[in-house]
């Protein structure tokens, strides 16, 4: 309309009018074209982004995480590290017991557990307690260890705990593994009942051997080279037992060996072995002090029983030094770089060449170059024959647990037990 009126109002000789008409062509047509172009560009961009998003959401081969083999799918579905914790109020423990009738045979009536004597420490599931269990004869209560599940616990924690009890049951009896006596899982709090290995862990025993303590409850706080081999041999028997079941321990260290007055050694700390059993692989939920780990573990590669053999070499070092932290000059976080330079620990002054030779065979970088637990045990049995049974191992310096924890790369709370009570 505006254009028509303009044309009508101007004569042919009117130059201004022609210019005005050209201005309309110059402004409107390009603006229109640019707008169309922008709209088209916007639509194309939108379609492109939408397609990208759909591809990201669609599971493709590169997105599938490898699923480790598992023997217990119901447990796997709940996920040990998953975040599906339901308050116990919403579900009942009886439901889980219904799903695990095998535990019925293991039940210890709660009234048989008469009194809690002491709390030993806080374990991975909760408090570890020493209690008396009635045996029927009131004059002869039996001391047992209760591993309690801390409260409040989530659904997956309860399943994990019950699974752990079943794992003990699956393992069966071995004189060098801590024995399951039963469980209390019909109501809260949940307990795993274990035999009491009264003298506690080997690390505390070794530290006590540094003191001027002669004897306590029948245990002699003297250690000879022969006894080191004797304890080592029992640990290897436990490892052979695990290997026969296609398992490995994953945390062989003095802190995970319990000791009786006759120097019977029992491997405990089976948390990682349980993880291998349920998941077929070690996941990152367990934190193991780095200085005990074989290179393949530090490099997060698949590991097996020969990684335990590496740790066994460190255990020999612990015993012969009466509980010194390994690699005292290396910060825990630098241990991998240290080993990558093919450096191993030097022979401690208290260690014979024969024993050091055995340690070195455990610390072969290549897994295949290390002996099997059985081969190692046979070597120990030969060494025992000529080992010194007279000279008592002596280290004059007492251990400061906080210092030890820092050098060894261990949480100090996981260490205190007998030693602090002496
Ligand atoms: N049967 C037992 N007899 C005596 N002391 C024990 C017994 N079991 C555990 N302890 C004490 O409790 C400490 C922790 O034990 P353990 O490593 O088995 O517990 P945890 O934290 O539940 O580990 P994991 O889950 O790996 O088994 C031991 O070092 C030891 O001092």
UniProtKB/TrEMBL annotation:
It is found in: Membrane. The keyword Membrane applies. Keywords: ATP-binding, Kinase, Membrane, Nucleotide-binding, Transferase, Transmembrane, Transmembrane helix, Tyrosine-protein kinase. InterPro entries: Kinase-like_dom_sf, Prot_kinase_dom, RTK, Ser-Thr/Tyr_kinase_cat_dom, Tyr_kinase_AS. It comes from the Eukaryota. It is a single-pass membrane protein. Coiled coil: none annotated. Its main location: membrane. GO terms for molecular function: ATP binding; non-membrane spanning protein tyrosine kinase activity. Its EC number is 2.7.10.2. It holds the Pfam family PK_Tyr_Ser-Thr. GO terms for cellular component: plasma membrane. The chain crosses the membrane at residues 27-49. Residues 114-384 form the Protein kinase domain. PROSITE patterns: PROTEIN_KINASE_DOM, PROTEIN_KINASE_TYR. This is Tyrosine-protein kinase STYK1. The gene is STYK1.
């Amino acid at each position: 309309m505006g254009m028509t009126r303009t044309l009508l109002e101007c004569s042919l000789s009117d130059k201004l009018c022609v210019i005005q008409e050209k201005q309309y062509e110059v402004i409107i047509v390009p603006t229109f074209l640019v707008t169309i172009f922008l709209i088209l560009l916007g639509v194309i961009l939108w379609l492109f982004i939408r397609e990208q998003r759909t591809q990201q959401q669609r599971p493709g081969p590169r997105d599938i995480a490898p699923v480790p083999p598992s023997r217990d799918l119901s447990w796997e579905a709940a996920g040990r590290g998953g975040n599906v914790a339901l308050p116990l109020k919403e579900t009942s423990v009886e439901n889980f017991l219904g799903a695990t009738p095998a535990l019925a045979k293991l039940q210890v009536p709660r009234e048989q557990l008469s009194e809690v004597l002491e709390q030993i420490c806080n374990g991975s599931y909760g408090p570890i307690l020493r209690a008396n269990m009635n045996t029927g004869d009131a004059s002869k209560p039996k001391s047992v260890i209760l591993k309690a599940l801390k409260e409040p616990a989530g659904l997956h924690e309860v399943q994990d705990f019950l699974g752990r009890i079943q794992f003990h049951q699956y393992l069966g009896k071995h004189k060098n593994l801590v024995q399951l006596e039963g469980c209390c899982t019909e109501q809260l709090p949940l307990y795993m009942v274990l035999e009491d290995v009264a003298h506690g862990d080997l690390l505390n025993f070794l530290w006590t051997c540094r003191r001027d303590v002669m004897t306590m409850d029948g245990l002699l706080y003297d250690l000879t080279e022969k006894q080191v081999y004797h304890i080592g041999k029992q640990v290897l028997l436990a490892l052979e037992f695990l290997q026969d079941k296609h398992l490995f321990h994953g945390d062989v260290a003095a802190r995970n060996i319990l000791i009786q007055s006759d120097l019977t050694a029992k491997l405990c700390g089976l948390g990682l072995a349980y993880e291998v059993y349920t998941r077929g692989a070690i996941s990152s939920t367990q934190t193991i002090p780095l200085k005990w780990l074989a290179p393949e573990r530090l490099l997060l590669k698949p590991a097996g029983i020969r990684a335990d053999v590496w740790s066994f070499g460190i255990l020999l070092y612990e015993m012969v030094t009466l509980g010194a932290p390994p690699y005292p000059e290396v910060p825990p976080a630098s241990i991998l770089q240290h080993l990558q330079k093919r450096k191993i620990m030097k022979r401690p002054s208290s260690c014979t060449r024969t024993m050091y030779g055995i340690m070195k065979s455990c610390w072969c970088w290549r897994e295949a170059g290390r002996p099997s637990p059985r081969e190692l045990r046979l070597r120990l049995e030969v060494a025992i024959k000529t080992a010194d049974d007279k000279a008592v191992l002596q280290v004059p310096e007492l251990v400061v647990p906080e210092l030890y924890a820092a050098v060894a790369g261990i949480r100090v709370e996981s260490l205190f037990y007998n030693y602090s009570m002496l």
